[in-house]
Amino acid sequence: MKHLKIMSIMMSAAMCASMLATPVMADETSAPAESQATEAAEEKEPEVKETKVPKATEAKETEEKEPAQTEEEKPAETEKQESAQTEEEKPTETEKQESAQTEEEKPAETEEEKPAESEEQVPEEEKAPEAETKKKAVDANSGSCGKNVTWKLTGTTLYINGAGSMYGYDEFVPGQTEGKSLTPWLDHNNEINYVVIGEGVTSVGANAFDGCSKLYAVSLPSTLKAVGYHAFSKCSALSGITLPAEMTSISAGAFRYCTSLNTITIPDKVEKIGESAFEGCSNLKKITLSPEITKISDEMFNGCSSLTGVIIPSKVTSIGSKAFYGCAALDAITIPTNVTSLGTYCFAGSGLYDITIPTSIKSIPNYAFSLCQNLGSVYLPYSVKTLGDYAFESCINLTEVHVDESVYNENGVKAFKSCSKAKYYFLVYATLNEVANINGFQVKVKDASKDGSGTVLLVKYTGSASDVIIPNWVKIHDCTYKVTKIYKQAFYKNTSLTTLTFGSVVSSIGDEAFLGCTNLTSVTGGKGITTIGDKAFCNCYALKTFTVPSTKLKKIGTYAFYADKACTLLTINQTAKLTKAGVTKSLKGSSVATVKVKKAKVAAYKKIFTKKIAGKKVKVTK
C-alpha cells in the first residue's frame, strides 16, 4: 500500500508538471522575441541590449511562482522538462542565437574601419555617431543632427537649429543600409518642401538633403561657412539658392543633379569648389564664380547643357577633366593667361565657336575639344608643344587651324581626326635682326627664340601719343618677344610726349633716349632698369618727377638730367646698387635738389651724391 500511495503521488505530480511545463516552455521561447521587439520600440539607447536570463534563475523564478513541491515531485518534473527541452527547445535555441546575432553582432566594425569609410563618404567633417542613426526616437519628427545642432520637421518644413557643424551622413542606397549613418529624416525625404537653417549653424553636412526631390526652397544663415559633400545632390525641384557672403568652400557634388537650378552666385570668399559640384544641372544658365578660386575642378559643370554665361576668374591655374563636358549652349569662353593645364575632355561636346589658347599652356590633352561641332577656328600659340590624341576629333565644322608646323607633324593627323573641312596655317616666326613696327614702336629682333624668350630692341617711337607705356612684350608674326632695351635717341626731341611709363622687363635706357622731350613731365616704372644712359633725359625742361623703383639700378649716366629745370626730386625707391662710379656727373647741370632712397641707404648715398662725384651736392633723404 505504501508503494501504491507513493506511485499515486508521483503520477499526480507528473501530471501537474506536464501541465506546468507547457507555459514555462512558451515563456522560454517566445518571451525573449517579444521582449526584444518591445524594447526596440521603447528604448532610446541602442547600447542597452537584452540580457538572457540564465536557466538557474529561470528555475528559481519558476519555483517562486509554482506551489511548493515534494522532494519526490522534483525529479519527476526535472525529467519531464529535460525531455521536453530535448524535443522542443533545440529549434527555439537556434532562433534565439540568430536573434541575438542580429541584435548583438550587427555593428561588427572595428574602430579602424569606421574612419576609413568616413573619409571616403564624408570628407572633412564630423560623421554622425552610429548610435544616433540607429536610435528610434519617441518623437519621429525631431532629434539631433550635430553635436550642438537639432532638427524638427513641422508639416513639410524642416528646421535645423543650434550652433556649429551638422553631422555628415552616408549616401542612401536602397538595399545597402547595413552599417550606414543615414540622415534621421530619411523617411521624410519625399515630403520636405522647405529647409530653414538657423543662425549659428556653420556647415551643411554631407548628404544632408541628398535626394529630397520635392525641396524647392532653402534658407541659409549668415554664419554658414561650408556646404558639404553631396549636401543638396538630386534636389530636382530646387530652382535657386542664395549662398551667404561668409562662405569659404563648396564640397564635391554639393548641387549635382539639381535639374531645376537656373542661376547661382558664388560668394567672393569661396576659394574652393569641389569636383562635380554642379554636374548634371541641366537648366543652369548662368553662374558667377568667386574671384578667389584657383581651379575649375573635374566635372564641375559636366552636363550643364543650358549653361551660357560663365567667366573663369583670373586666378584660375587649371581646368579639370570634363569640367565643361557637354555644355552645348556654351558658345564662347576666355581662358585666363594664368591657366597652365587643361584636363582631358575639358570642353568636349561644348558649343564653342572659336577658341584661343593662352601662351601659358604647353600641351592640349586627349579629347580636350572633341565633338565641338560649332567650332570654326582654333589658334594654338607657339607655347603649345604637344597635341593629345583626338584633341579636336569630330569638330566637323572646323575650317581654320593655326599651329606650329613641327607640332602638327608630330601628332596633328590623330589630333584632328574627322575634321575634314580644316585648313592648316603654320605659325610664322621672326628672324634675327628683323625690324617690325608694332603700334608705333619700331623694334629690332635681337634674340629670335621661338618659345617666347626672344628679345627686341626698341629702336624708335614713331607714334604721336602723349602718354606712352613701354610694353613688356610685342608680337611679331606668331610669336612674342620681350622689350628689354630702349635704343639711343629712340624718343629724340619728341615734343608730344608728356608722361612715360616703363615696362617691368626694360633693363637699359640708351644715351640721349629722351633728350629734348621738352613737354615730358613725369617718368615712372621700370622695376628691372639697371642703366640710365648719358644725357638720357637732358633738356627735358618740364620734367618734375622721376621715380625708378628698380632694385637693380647700377648707373645713372653723365649729364642724365642736364638742364631739367623743374626736376627737383629724384626718387630711387627700393635697394638700388648705385656706387661712386655709377653716379659720376649724373646730376651736373640739373635742378635736382633731393634724392629720396630707403632709410638704410641714406648714409651711403650721402657720400656719393656730392658735388665732386655727382656734379652737384644734393640732400639725401629717406
Written account of the structure:
The chain is α/β, with parallel strands linked by helices and 622 residues long. Among the domains are: 118-238, Alpha-Beta Horseshoe (Leucine-rich repeat, LRR (right-handed beta-alpha superhelix)), CATH 3.80.10; 488-621, Ribonuclease Inhibitor (Leucine-rich repeat, LRR (right-handed beta-alpha superhelix)). The protein has 8 helices and 36 strands. Strands 22, 23, 24, 26, 27, 29, 31 and 33 form an 8-stranded mixed beta sheet that branches.
Blueprint (SSEs and pairs):
Layout: H1 2-42, H2 55-65, H3 73-104, H4 113-121, H5 130-134, E1 142-146, E2 149-154, E3 157-162, E4 164-165, E5 194-197, E6 201-204, E7 217-219, E8 226-227, E9 249-250, E10 263-265, E11 272-273, E12 286-288, E13 295-296, E14 318-319, E15 341-342, E16 354-356, E17 363-364, E18 377-379, E19 386-387, E20 400-403, H6 405-415, E21 423-426, E22 435-438, E23 441-447, E24 455-461, E25 467-469, E26 473-476, E27 479-486, E28 499-502, E29 508-509, E30 522-525, E31 531-532, E32 545-548, E33 555-556, E34 569-572, E35 594-596, H7 602-606, H8 611-614, E36 619-621
Parallel strand pairs: 3-5, 4-6, 5-7, 6-8, 8-9, 9-11, 10-12, 13-14, 14-15, 16-18, 17-19, 18-20, 20-21, 24-27, 25-28, 27-29, 28-30, 29-31, 30-32, 31-33, 32-34, 34-35, 35-36
Antiparallel strand pairs: 1-2, 2-3, 22-23, 23-24, 26-27
Helix pairs in contact: 1-3
